[in-house]
């Protein structure tokens, strides 16, 4: 019997096979394959290398990612009759019909891949993947392989740079689904930012498919959906250790008075709807209280409501988790929030203890997923050998010339395991 | 019996259903839905509006796109048992089990959508889509709808801006699949750049699924795979109107001598491999000869090879289509190429006639698909009404405050059908 993990893998494989059929490529791969086939060259042994010319984001490294997707794609590379009929309808009318019979029989059983490991630190102009096999087949693979590697590696590298900036302790949450290039862009982002060093994702499907820990509590819409304390139901909550439910709303109202006094705030500035939203959420999830506090005003309402509910939860021995700041000057607001927590901790030590870092989790959405400062990685797929003879592309732009022939990558380490130097094939060599 | 079109639609619908299951959303939608459900508020009638705050690319308009995907998503919105079990495993342990029973029974039959038409010109802060229905359900839809609208509208708008810049005559080819956010990012780009005004795509699967005309001929790898004229086989070609095949290679060699003389070029600069590649391709596709001419040097080799093969094709009454320039100074090169065509047209008028425009088709890849200058559209989904009462979000950043209540969009046209003015709900009103 299949285990749940195997089932997930099977789902994933099926989903990838359906997402990346061999038709997902540029049309010119087929016109070239035809020209090779027509000249009887389609089975000549050929080698392509996949690499990029510059590290992204002006940085000094990249992470290579997408290999497992590439392997699944190769395993499932087969044209259906429908695919072939479509190609017949769009290729020039003088295409020899036998070519379509040839396509129907194609698979990647004669293709070999040699690649650096998924998630490896890599550098510009180093071959990340060497694809060898029959000329027409390895040509057909170009666009699909680039599509599977380019964005995966880019977003993985972007995530790693966020991780380096955030340091090893702070937790990082990917939350860019809504700004990704459609559903699969979002899934790819969740998956490869996790490989790049993010701890969490907001994307539930990515959590399900890839086993990435998921996180999230509430949006502004939840807060703004409440307008009065009358909407809070039930209003009671049992203490954490058990026992009779007590009137939680009454308890919170009491704490709100203390908090306003303590922080020198005016009770009339508190939004009743925001207090109702926090109360209702805390009653639903007393062990997971982490509201968004900037739906109206952090200082005049959100922070006061949070502290009142949090202190009431503490009184019932629950542990509030923290607050979420969504926009505005996050640094300034986090200082304001920390100050309030310190003041409140005089009343309830555990509230302070659970908040001894100013910012524990950083969620990144748009900038992470769209890689704003450089939204594409320029991986290319270049022919380097045919029939054992090296091939190169010259160009009037010397940067775009290729280094002919197959390459091996060496990394020379000293006895301590530290990098001695790296041999990089460059145009200058 | 299903027609091919219906089959394609069915495939597309199935593919979308599998791509956008209701789990493809942020986890906090579920924690909020639970809190609503726990408080007995989940069936309260609520209204959300989807809009963006600023036109992208510093421009004056956007195109709204993604509506049909949203509607398919809503039609297929149902949780499987596996989805629900996954949610049970990640939501807090104190979640009431009856909530999962509630999720299992959910669909969008009680949800209404009112939207501007797909492809409509829209402006900032105008509601593009109004989603009304039970509070918990319309909350759950947020991320998926944003994911389906944001990138589609962005890339459609980007395409429209390219169209405006290119003018109405020049044909535009989308070719960004390899730099998109994975397979679906590429498909979405092909589909919505077509709506935005592109004529063609290189993406064969997009052609198949959406009926977009496809185009493409050859990459540099095809050219560099040849090194000698001995690799050309067959070397004969029958005239267009029929008749005995003639020695095409011999004919091309003759024309190459004329071309070099005509253009004052040195025959020894011509790359034998490039000539072989063009010859071989022309013999395979004599009616579709459009080679990439900058694999080595346009002036010293690629252009000479093209002219020789093209003139030989003309002699056999075939019509060569043109050349592709891939990189470098495209304007300078196009002038050089045009000059050569003019010179050659003295020998073969039809070559000139088919090239009376300097650049007929422009292919755009990375910049089009990744929307480099602004890689995301900031569509948001804001609660505007619950139980018939307006809701708003205030913010310390006035730009982020919402205008409460449902809105109607009016466009006032004069008797000529010209826009008189547009009523925009803005924060200033």
Automatic annotation (TrEMBL), chains A, B:
Residues 23-150 form the Nicotinate phosphoribosyltransferase N-terminal domain. GO terms for biological process: NAD+ biosynthetic process via the salvage pathway. It is an enzyme of class 6 (ligase). InterPro entries: Aldolase_TIM, NAPRTase_N, Nic_PRibTrfase-Fam, Nic_PRibTrfase_pncB, Nicotinate_pribotase-like_C. Keywords: Ligase, Phosphoprotein, Pyridine nucleotide biosynthesis, Transferase. Transiently phosphorylated on a His residue during the reaction cycle. Phosphorylation strongly increases the affinity for substrates and increases the rate of nicotinate D-ribonucleotide production. Dephosphorylation regenerates the low-affinity form of the enzyme, leading to product release. SUPFAM superfamilies: Nicotinate/Quinolinate PRTase C-terminal domain-like, Nicotinate/Quinolinate PRTase N-terminal domain-like. One of its GO terms (cellular component) is cytosol. Pathway: Cofactor biosynthesis; NAD(+) biosynthesis; nicotinate D-ribonucleotide from nicotinate: step 1/1. Its EC number is 6.3.4.21. It comes from the Eukaryota. One of its GO terms (molecular function) is transferase activity. Catalyzes the first step in the biosynthesis of NAD from nicotinic acid, the ATP-dependent synthesis of beta-nicotinate D-ribonucleotide from nicotinate and 5-phospho-D-ribose 1-phosphate. Helps prevent cellular oxidative stress via its role in NAD biosynthesis. NCBIfam families: NAPRTase_put (TIGR01513). Belongs to the NAPRTase family. This is Nicotinate phosphoribosyltransferase.
């Amino acid at each position: 019997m299949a285990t749940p993990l195997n089932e997930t893998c099977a789902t994933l494989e099926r989903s990838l096979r359906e997402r990346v059929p061999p038709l997902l490529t540029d049309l010119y791969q087929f016109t070239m394959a035809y020209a090779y086939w027509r000249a009887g060259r389609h089975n000549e042994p050929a080698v392509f290398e996949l690499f990029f010319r510059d590290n992204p984001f002006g940085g000094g490294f990249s992470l290579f990612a997408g290999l497992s997707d590439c392997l699944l794609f190769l395993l499932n590379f087969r044209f259906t009759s429908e695919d072939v009929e479509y190609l017949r309808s769009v290729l020039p009318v003088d295409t020899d019909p036998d070519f379509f019979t040839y396509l129907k029989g194609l698979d990647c059983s004669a293709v070999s891949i040699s690649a650096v490991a998924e998630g490896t630190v890599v550098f510009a102009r180093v071959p990340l993947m060497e694809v060898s096999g029959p000329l027409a087949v390895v040509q057909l693979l170009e666009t699909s392989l680039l599509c599977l590697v380019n964005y995966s590696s880019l977003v993985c590298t972007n995530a790693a740079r966020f991780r380096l900036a955030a340091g090893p302790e702070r937790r990082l949450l990917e939350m860019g689904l809504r700004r990704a290039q459609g559903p699969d862009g979002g899934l790819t982002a969740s998956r490869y930012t996790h490989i790049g060093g993010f701890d969490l994702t907001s994307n539930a499907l990515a959590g399900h498919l890839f086993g990435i820990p998921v996180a999230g509590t509430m949006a502004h819409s939840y807060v703004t959906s409440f307008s009065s304390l009358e909407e809070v139901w039930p209003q009671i909550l049992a203490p954490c250790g058990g026992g009779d439910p007590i009137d939680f709303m009454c308890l919170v109202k009491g704490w709100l008075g203390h908090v306003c006094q303590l922080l020198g705030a005016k009770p009339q500035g508190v939004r009743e709807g925001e207090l109702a939203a926090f109360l209702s959420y805390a009653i639903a999830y007393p062990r997971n209280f982490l509201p968004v506090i900037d739906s109206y005003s952090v200082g005049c309402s959100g922070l006061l409501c949070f502290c009142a509910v949090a202190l009431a939860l503490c009184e019932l021995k629950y542990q509030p988790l923290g607050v979420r700041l969504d926009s505005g000057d996050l640094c300034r607001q986090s200082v304001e929030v920390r100050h309030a927590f310190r003041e409140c901790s005089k009343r309830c030590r555990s509230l302070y203890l659970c908040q001894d870092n100013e910012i524990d989790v950083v969620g990144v959405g748009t900038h992470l997923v769209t890689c704003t400062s450089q939204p594409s990685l320029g991986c290319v797929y270049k022919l380097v050998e045919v029939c054992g003879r090296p091939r190169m592309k010259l160009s009037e732009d010397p940067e775009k010339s290729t280094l002919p022939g197959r390459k091996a990558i060496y990394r020379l380490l000293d006895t301590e395991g530290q990098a001695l130097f790296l041999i990089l094939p460059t145009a200058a060599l």
